[in-house]
Structures are given as C-alpha cells and as structure tokens.
C-alpha cells in the first residue's frame, strides 16, 4: 500500500491520511511476536489503518496491543474503532488518560469547544472502549512485544499531562508523540506543539532532557516520520520552546490580545522556517491548522496566566 513505509526492525510507518491528507499523522506497527500499533490516528482514519494492517498480514485476532502516546484526538481518536476491529488487542495509555478512553464524553465536549464545526471533518468521534480492555501505565512501565522485546514507557508531560514516550528495546526507536514538537520532513523544520490547557515550559524541557538521557537511536514523530539526528533535533526542540515562550511572554507583558500576539510571534519566527515549495504548501497548511501559531501561542498564554512571574 502506498501509505505503508518499512523502517527496518519490523517497524512500519502508516500514514493515517488524517482528514484525507497525506503526511500529517503517522501510526506505527511493530510487527513482532506480539504485534503492536503505536498511535491510531483519528476515528475517521481507523479504516485506513485497518487496511494497512491487513496488507501487512495482521488479521482481526492478531493485533496484541494498541498503545497511544497521549489521548489527543489526532493520536487516539481511533482507539474505540480499532478496539472494535481487533477484539483481542489490549489498549494501553498512561493512567491519566485511561478514563477518557473508557468514557470520552468530557474529551469530546472539550474538543467541540476548540474545533467547532471542524471537529467531525478533522477527527470524527472517539468511541468508548470497554474499561476491562484498557491497561493504565504507571510513570515508568513496560509493554511486552514478545520474543524478549519490549517498549519501555516513560512519562513525559509538558505537551499534555497524559503523555508518554516509548522506547523500543530492539531498535532504540523512541516514539515521541508530540513531546518533541512537530517535524516537517518536507522542509526539515521542527516547530513546537504547546496547546492549551496542559503546556508547561519547565515540564516540557524536563521531558526533552529525559528523552536525550534515554539515548535513542532514532526519533519517530507522530507528525511526522523518523529522524536520526537525535541530539540535534532534541536540542532544536528545546530551543524552539524557549524562543516561542520568550516571544509570547513579551506579547503577554505588553498586554496584547491573542490575535495580536499570534501575529507578532509569526512575524518574529518566520525566518526560522523554510518557505515551502508549491507542492508542499498544502501539507504545511494542514500542519498549521493542526498545530500552528494560534494553538501554540494560546497554550503559552494560558501557562503564563496561571504561572508566577518567575516561572519558566
């Protein structure tokens, strides 16, 4: 299938075709003794992901585990649907997100307030998963992949309070979710992902330090794809966070409203990122909608409003 890319080590990248677009959100299949899907994508992407797994020889009773880095709908919106397609699979998530997969009503109501009429098109509806099928991870935990292989789970908040990074013992791949930001393979740019309401600068930087200390061989971004320059990318991620926070703090201190703050931060950061080619412009536009300046600045503003002046 044209949306499946082998990455070596029995790992396959699956383009979930979020909202019908290519290159926005990736899921990953680890095809070992106990096949494991990392990230489901959205609810509307679930049939795309199922077809990809079928093409890789994973039938309805073969998938052992579904694990999500966090419960935002572009990562976990398809959990309920995928759980229905694969009745033997255990659903794995950090304990702070587990109740929202069993009862998504609060999460969906919050998403409706943020996205409004775009919700159905972008994400669809997260269906509930039977609580008995959900495994809640502790801050440090492990997921058995069979054959002596495991995913070590490491609590990594800052982007979201229910976020984990996942380190593959066989390949050294680290599934970073959104904790290291959003990587655009078309331009090589890395941008922060600091949405409300959970963003916290110090916590986010601590999570990046944790990732570096784990010594991964490769970072697998949910947005989007594999990156091998691990120390450089993690350092860039921390640098981007600090720059966006400093600029937003300046706007906040000057009393700017959100629209003016977004415009200022966009202008001040424009030269940090490559201009997309005409072929890549639509993909970059989709990234901007999903995790762009309005969301990032709003998340930083929210953190500043609830922080003391000395925070960060």
TrEMBL record:
It comes from the Bacteria. InterPro entries: Metallo-B-lactamas, NDM-1-like, RibonucZ/Hydroxyglut_hydro, ST1585_MBL-fold. It holds the Pfam family Lactamase_B. Residues 24-223 form the Metallo-beta-lactamase domain. PANTHER family: METALLO BETA-LACTAMASE SUPERFAMILY LIPOPROTEIN, METALLO-BETA-LACTAMASE DOMAIN-CONTAINING. This is MBL fold metallo-hydrolase. It comes from Sphaerisporangium dianthi.
């Amino acid at each position: 299938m044209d949306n499946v890319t082998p990455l070596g080590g029995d790992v396959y990248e699956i383009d979930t075709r979020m909202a019908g677009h290519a290159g926005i959100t990736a899921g990953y299949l680890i095809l070992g003794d106990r096949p494991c899907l990392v990230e489901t994508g959205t609810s509307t992407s679930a049939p795309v992901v199922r077809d990809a797994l079928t093409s890789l020889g994973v039938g309805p009773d073969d998938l052992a585990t579904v694990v999500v880095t966090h419960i935002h709908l572009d990562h976990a919106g398809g959990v309920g649907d995928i759980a229905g397609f694969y009745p033997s699979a255990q659903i794995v998530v950090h304990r702070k997100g587990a109740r929202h997969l069993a009862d998504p009503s609060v999460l969906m109501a919050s998403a409706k307030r943020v996205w409004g009429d775009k919700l159905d098109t972008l994400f669809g509806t997260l269906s509930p998963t039977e609580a008995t099928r959900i495994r809640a991870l502790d801050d440090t935990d492990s997921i058995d992949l069979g054959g002596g292989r495991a995913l070590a789970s490491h609590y990594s908040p800052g982007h979201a309070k229910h976020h984990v990074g996942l380190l593959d013992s066989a390949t050294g791949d680290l599934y970073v979710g959104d904790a290291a930001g959003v990587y655009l393979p078309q331009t090589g740019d890395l941008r922060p992902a600091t949405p409300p309401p959970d963003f916290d600068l110090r916590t986010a930087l601590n999570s990046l330090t944790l990732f570096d200390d784990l010594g991964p061989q490769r970072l697998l971004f949910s947005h989007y794809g594999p990156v091998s320059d691990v120390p450089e990318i993690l350092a860039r991620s921390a640098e981007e966070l600090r720059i966006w926070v400093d600029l937003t703090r300046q706007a906040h201190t000057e009393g700017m409203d959100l629209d003016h703050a977004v415009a200022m931060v966009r202008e001040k950061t424009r030269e940090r990122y490559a201009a997309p080619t005409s072929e890549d412009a639509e993909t970059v536009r989709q990234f901007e909608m999903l995790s762009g300046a309005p969301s990032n600045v709003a998340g930083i503003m929210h953190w500043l409003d609830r922080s003391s002046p000395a925070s960060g």
